[in-house]
Queue: 2 jobs
Job 1
Amino acid sequence: MVLYKLQDFEPNYRDSFEGHDIKGLGVYTQGTDEKVGTVSDVLVDEEGHFRYLVVDLGFWIFGKKVLLPIARARVDYNTDRVYTIGLTREQAEDLPEFSEREALDYDYEERVRGVYRQPTDYVKPVDPLLPLEATPPVDTNYQPATTQAAATTPTYNRDSYNYEQEPSLFGLNEQDHQTLKLYEERLIASKRRQKTGEVAIGKRVETDTARVAVPIEKERVVIERVTPADAGTAVSGREADFREGEVARVEIHEETAEIRKEAFLREEVRVRKVVDQETVETQETVRREELDVNSGNLPIEER
């Protein structure tokens, strides 16, 4: 099975832990509260499950790094500590040293798992958050189920081995890794665009009666007879020219009104839309979970 560093497997892993980073936390023994070292890295499998903590044993064995199975660790973010479950200095000395240059194959992991499978003198865990006067007495005869079973350690097949076969090493202890999530409801405002109607703008033709006045001219013939001043005076035969059939012709004209229609641009109508903004307020009932702690007379420190 292939193991990966947590950073290489998921660069943004801190987002899943609400900004917490297990790397860099101090490692302490559970019960004696002795500092063992520091978490330098985390190893996960192909599915992202935590399998080992890489612990730098600087406070026990300078310069040595070892693997701590995830089920043998308890992370306490309230104190920024990692507590080992049942790890002894003797086991730490027997553990093979972790090196990035060495392949993490089945044989190497078996050497690591073999150390943790060995029976050891075990001290019953003590809650590090309890004051000393509330600490229960140590039961020297207490043996965990993992230690009792170590006397008859089963054998595992290289080809069929998986981490679920050893929950004592790789199963998360729900008692030591409890997380209570508090939820609350929030109002999320969004906008939805919907059609409220439409405005149709068109043209129609209306008919009106228009009147126009055009002055015109008409000619007419006026025949005027007058008596000359020398009327009654005799004229010579040469001057008196009597001719029959003589006709005077006068042309008569008049004007008529000619009306035609011609189109002219009267006005332009421009159609556009404008957006008016307004704030709409609404209210809704939301729920929120609050923490209800019932501790009796035990002192509780909330962080």
Note: DSSP finds five helices and seven strands in the chain.
Job 2
Amino acid sequence: MLNEKYAAIAKKLAESFPQSVVLCNEPMKAHTTFRIGGPADIYVEPDYSDITGILRFLKEEDVPFTVIGNGSNLLVSDAGIEGVVVALGKKSGEITVSGDTIVVGAGALLSTVANAAADAGLTGLEFASGIPGTLGGAVYMNAGAYGGEIKDVLESVTVLTADLKEQVLNPEELDLSYRHSALMEKGGYVTQVVLKLQPGDKTEIKAKIDEIRSQRVAKQPLNFPSAGSTFKRPEGYFAGKLIDDAGLRGYSVGGAQVSEKHCGFVINKDNATAADVLKLMHNVDDIVFNKFGVHLTPEVRIIGRDIN
């Protein structure tokens, strides 16, 4: 049951921003690739034109809010999320190609943007074609795969700062490094991204995308819900190899399991809870550290009520 304050907030949001989707007590397991997570008090999918207005409204009303993308790198608490979840998705993912530049709303899926680039005969984004997140989330964590990273093709980013002022930042100002951007420390929300690519051969670009997707299918446990790579790559090591060498291939806690196909992934094999995943991650880190003296740092973003 939604309390009176949040019920009133949901009503105001729906009335003030009719182009946006507003849901109450919405289970987050329906909005994460892990298929795990309790309810958000209020869940909003904003139209692109409403993003700034919605965030400023929530700040003025002193309502806690969490901004997410496609939910592909998230583990949400079983107790859900306090306040409002603002999910930048299809309604905030417009793509415009002009010459060798692509201007993209933060909610666009990386795969969709990579396909748009390929259709325009632009190369440089093929590496991102198999990453299951949004472009905004990819900038936030400088996502990468198959030898490429977002910073390699980034020209500028429009963000709302922590105090909700709009700024345009270049890659240097974002301090992009391995799975890191300055937004992680300073706060802020990506709303639009400008990518700079290179002209290429459409046939070759699409062949590269097909090759990357085939590799993902062959090597990753895509038949089970997961949040992608669970741990960051420790310097000088590979997390999946450390976990495998520690004898943890197939290791389970409740419904959560270290994938037998790729030890860098924790999968939701059988109705796993967030508590199952957290305990498994903690145990894996302990065992790997005891065997090899290397700690594993989560790559997955862990959010929600009662997260310690």
Note: The chain has a mean pLDDT of 95.
